[in-house]
Amino acid sequence: MFALSQRKILTGVVKDAHSEEPVPFASIQFINSTVGKLSDSSGTFEFNLAKWPSDTLEVTCVGYQPYKLFIPANRDSITIEIIMERGTFNEGAQVRTKINKGLFLWRKIVQNKSRNDKFRFKNFSYEVYNKLEVDVKNLDFKRVLPGIPISKIKPFKQVTDIINSNIDSTEGPPYLPAYLTETLSDYYYQPKPLRRREVIKAVNTNGVDNESIIPFLGNMDQNVSVYGNFIPVMNKQFVSPASDNGDAYYNYRVVDTQVVNQNRYYHLVFTPRRRGENTFEGDCWVHAGTYAIQKMNLRLGKDANINFLETLSLIQEYRLLDDSTTWFLAKDKFIADISPRGKQRLGFIGRKTTTYKNIMINDSSVANELNKNKLIEEIITLPDAAKKGKEYWANARHEELSKNEKSIIKMIDTLTNAPEFKKVTTTLSFIGTGYLDIGNFQIGPWYNWVSSNAWEGFRIRFDLGTNKKFSKKFYLHTYLAYGFNDEKVKGKGEVFFLPAKHPRTYLYGSYTKDLDFGQYYYGEVTSDNIFTLAVRKSGIPAKFLKVEEKRFEFFHETRAGFSGLVELLQKDFEPLKNIPPKDSFTVESGEPLNTFEVSLRLRFAYLERFLESNFFRTSLGSPYPIPEIRITQGIPGVGKSAYSYTKISGSIRDYIKLPPFGSIEFLLAAGKTFGTVPYTFLDIAPGNELYYYNKYAFSMMNKYEFVHDKYAGFTFEHNIGNGLFRFIPKLKFRQFYTIKTLWGGLSDANKALNFKSGYDFETLDGRTYLELGTGIDNIFKILRLDFIWRVLPTPLPKESNRRFGVYGSFRLTF
Q: How far apart are CA 74 and CA 54, in angstroms?
């Protein structure tokens, strides 16, 4: 008994510092001795010794930095958690043999994909549990403004103490919990014909109050297989180590073999062949009998062309089902360290863990559930999903929340309910979005409050609208503007009624009396804001139109993605400067440049996804092309309208990923106007008179330069990715090229009506307008430069600044 009491016991677990996942089969050795062992498949180990062999324990594993632990001689029992920092998978000497075992094992993995990939089954289903945590790291108030502690600045002074009291710095760098969510859902899938269905049974969000994000928290967008040729990371496609062409992108080597529960596993390590490509480095354990991947660890190297990421890890674990020959996904883990300004600066850590239970494969009950789908994929959120209590979650979670995760919920609740914290977040929101809620009303955007132009001179504007506290169905908005040169008051009033959100139906009415500033296109910097003067081209006369507009819209969409918009529009134009005046056009009845239109727009966007606020939404795109057609009829005799005409236009747009060759975005558009009408009702080619790049306009064309009553156009952009810049990976620049072309014509009757005004209109008359461009994207991670050449039609304009131009734009993207 005395001898047993003197035994030296050391137990522990080896974990990855970034992912917090166990590190299996790490080598644990007492230095200068023969005593050592490997951690087991779950990363744990135990020594039971008569005496300590030495005073230092060394832990090593491929891909990690060596870890040394001092062992006090007077300690009899030690329990420790060993945190391994990432190293490199290229360490050590490479042994050249006639047979490359790593390449041989990769070939076996590829050959056996058909028997190991989960998408091989006729159908499958499972219960999936998703947990997502976001923390703010390195929140240091002394470093926000050099020399001025933020705690001295109002309105931040009162909130700093609250935040500091909730920052967790017990392990590693300090971080502030910002968001924690859990979802539990049933997921169903079949490959032929493709159908996907997810029923979200429960959701628990802390930190964000927006129901529209719930569908994105489930499993529908998380279905990733390491057996695929590409693995999505942020908005990019990375080559999988198990890709059919993996040997063109990776070096493979086998570094170990282990036997666990009478099953032999190979340890395969892979590293990129070339720097700067969309590849991973990491390792995996491969089952010797089936050549199935049991665990895959992926991480992005520092040369990966992803913005703002300091570190990123992806882990997938597979387990055998009951038949002992079928492997199926058991756990996903994704950890991203987002540090826009560097590792030691303010950043975010996102951790997403997904586990799978109650797996069924090739079962009739799965097919029956999928037969309920009316679309290829459907996400259903049960009505009481967000109302589950603590007892439900305690029983339903696949794994219990850690002590740290439980404290996160408490911290978030404390912060979000503190009045001082609410005031700071409101201020930051106002600066970022431009809008500020005051009770039931909203003011802003602030960047429209002050501007200037050649007609109005100094212009001021003030907006007032309602918010969801006023009504969840009605949105009211108005603004007043005043120009100090023309001494005129302008304004707008609008009413938006939203009786149904899913599928969406709304009614809209507005009255506007203001300058038109030419034409606006999505993505353009408009003329009515504080930033315009800095980017306007010099030497080009600004065109000014005054418009009085009355508009009514009815919109309805179906769950299948069809939508229809009926629009009634009364417009009265008054040209003010540098375009043909109103008295250039005579009419038999009504008033010149006055029209009444009835329009029908039909659009089909299958499986389009949106991020919604209470009234408005932002499209996140569709995996399919989006076609649209619009028919407009001008009707004379309504009010003072004077014109009869018919306009038909259509377009189709798409965004296509072409890994590993980047992505393509294109737009095809065409239209025709039947009737003889002034230029304001014809098709005016979209020119750009700013040095800010607009992808929907022709950069080397002025506004109102080309006028048509029939046209066809095509815009194409290919983002190559690194391209030539892969040889300088630290820059993280990206390449692209653009093609924009337009064909158009104008009838003799419309030429006679519009060209007599003396204004320098042009028409292509069947010729081709062509712009070619290339440039550099991702400069300083936010800046894009476009170099544009006007190629056709010839002869080109005499002015050199209309043949070639350089344009800038800003955007945030990973």
A: 12
Dihedral class, residue 732 (left if φ above 0, else alpha if ψ from -120 to 50, else beta): left
Predicted pLDDT at 207: 59
Decide: 807 and 789 in contact? Cβ < 8 Å. no
pLDDT of res. 806: 92
- The four Cα atoms 763, 771, 711, 519 give a dihedral, to 10 degrees, of -80
User: Is the distance from CB of 742 to CB of 699 less than 8 angstroms?
Assistant: no
Mapping DSSP to helix (H, G, I), strand (E, B) and coil, where does residue 247 land?
helix
Alpha helices for 441-482 (secondary structure H):
none
CA dist 788 → 207, 688, 770 (Å)? 45, 12, 10
Please give the sequence-ordered ranges of beta strands (E in DSSP) within 502-644, or none if there are none.
Answer: 504-515, 544-557, 562-577, 594-604, 610-612, 617-619, 626-634
Here the tokens at position 214 are 């719930």
Other CB atoms within 10 Å distance of the CB of residue 105: 20
Strand partners, 664: 656, 718
Confidence at 628, pLDDT banded by 50, 70, 90? very high
| pLDDT tens column, 684-709 | 998 888 888 888 889 999 888 899 99
CA distance linking residue 458 with residue 517, whole number of Å: 15
Structure tokens at 606: 């299958």
What is the separation of C-alpha 324 from the centre of its chain, rounded to a whole number of angstroms? 40
Determine the straight-line distance between the first and last CA of the chain, rounded to whole angstroms: 63
**Residue 521: CB atoms within 10 Å:** 12
Question: Hey, CA dihedral for 33, 34, 40, 46, is it positive or negative?
Answer: negative
- Alpha carbons 703 and 543: distance in angstroms, whole number: 8
Alpha helices in 417-559 (DSSP H): 419-433
The pLDDT of 150-159, averaged and rounded, is: 53
Is the bond leading into 173 cis (omega within 30 degrees of zero)?
A: no
Are 374 and 366 contacting, i.e. CB atoms less than 8 angstroms apart?
Answer: no
Q: Residue 93 burial by CB count (10 A; 0-12/13-18/19+): exposed, middle or buried?
A: exposed
Burial per residue of 379-404, b for 16 or more beta-carbon CB atoms within 10 angstroms, e otherwise: bbbeeebeebeeeeeeeebbeebeee
Check if the beta carbon of residue 297 is closer than 8 Å to that of residue 270.
no
**Rounded Cα distance, 382 and 384, in Å:** 6
Q: Name every residue whose Cβ is closer than 8 Å to that of residue 322 and which is 6 or more positions away in sequence.
A: none
H/E stretch holding 301 reads none
What does the pLDDT look like over 163-192, one tens digit per residue? 555 555 454 455 666 778 889 999 999 988
State how far the Cα of 521 lies from the Cα of 489, in Å rounded to an integer. 25
Arithmetic mean of pLDDT, 542-562: 91
- Residues 689-726: b if buried by 16+ CB within 10 A, e if exposed: bbbbbbbbbbbbbbbbbbbbbbbebebebbbbbbbebb
Q: Where are the beta strands (DSSP E) in 467-531?
A: 474-483, 488-501, 504-515
CA distances from 56 to 25, 61, 67, 77, 701 (A): 19, 17, 10, 15, 73
Q: Which of 765, 727, 758, 724 is nearest to 744 (CA)?
A: 765
CA angle 639, 644, 648 (to 5 degrees): 120
Residue type, 365: S
In this structure, the number of other CB atoms found within 10 A of the CB of residue 312 comes to 22
DSSP state of 371: T
Q: What was the pLDDT predicted at 141?
A: 54
In tens, the pLDDT along 427-472 reads: 777 887 788 889 899 998 888 888 888 888 899 999 999 998 999 8
- Name the residue among 120, 107, 109 with its Cα closest to residue 326: 120
pLDDT at 475: 95
User: Strand 734-745 relative to strand 768-779: parallel, antiparallel, unpaired?
Assistant: antiparallel
For CA atoms 522, 525, 527, 528, the dihedral sign is positive
